Amino acid sequence: MPGQPAARRTVLKGAALAGIAGLGAVACSTESKLGHAQTPTPTAPVELGAVDEVPVGGSKLYREQRVVVSCPAAGQYKAFSAQCTHAGCLLDKVEKNEGSCPCHGSRFDTTTGEAVRGPATVPLPAVPVKVEGGKLIAGPDA
Ligand code: FES
Question: What pTM does this model have?
Answer without folding.
Answer: 0.73
